[in-house]
Amino acid sequence: MTSAAARIRDALVRRILDGPGSCAPAVRRAAFDNQDTPTGLADLVDTVARHAWLVRDEHINRARAAGASEDEIFELVVCAAVGQAARQHAAAMAAVDRATRESQAAPADAGAVRRADA
């Protein structure tokens, strides 16, 4: 990732976690991490993080019933989605780094394909 893209990503994460908002920063962090989310909100946050396409009105209605406002629900959904994206990005970059290290450590001809007519 380019340094400009990394700066933009980091600014986004800082803004949603530490910037002004309707939810307390600790609740936004819990949604971002998909851990220790308050009762009534955990199902929505987990569904957004793990199976976003399965979010239904019932998830939103349960969050409302737990006392969350529309703005709080929006913030939690954004935090859950960005948190999951950050985890997936980190896992992908770790896999690329691992593969790069392994390919650099392998003997130069280990992966060479030999031609049948050679």
Low-confidence stretches: none
The coarse overall form would be elongated
Instruction: Count the E strands.
Output: 0
Q: What is the gyration radius calculated from CA atoms? A: 21 Å
Helix content: 55-70%
Tell me the number of helical segments per DSSP (H or I, 4 or more residues long): 5
Tell me the quaternary state.
single chain
Query: Mind describing the biggest β-sheet?
Result: none
Mean pLDDT: 90
Give the class from helix and strand content and strand pairing: mainly alpha
Total individual domains: 1
Distance between the termini: 40 Å
- DSSP strand (E) fraction? under 5%
What's the SSE blueprint?
Blueprint: H1 3-18, H2 25-33, H3 42-51, H4 57-65, H5 70-105
Helix pairs in contact: 2-5, 3-5
What does this structure look like?
The chain is mainly α. It is built from five helices and no strands. Helices cover 68% and strands 0% of the residues. It starts with a helix and ends in a 13-residue tail after the last helix.
Core attributes:
elongated, 5 helices, mainly alpha, single chain, 0% strand, 118 residues
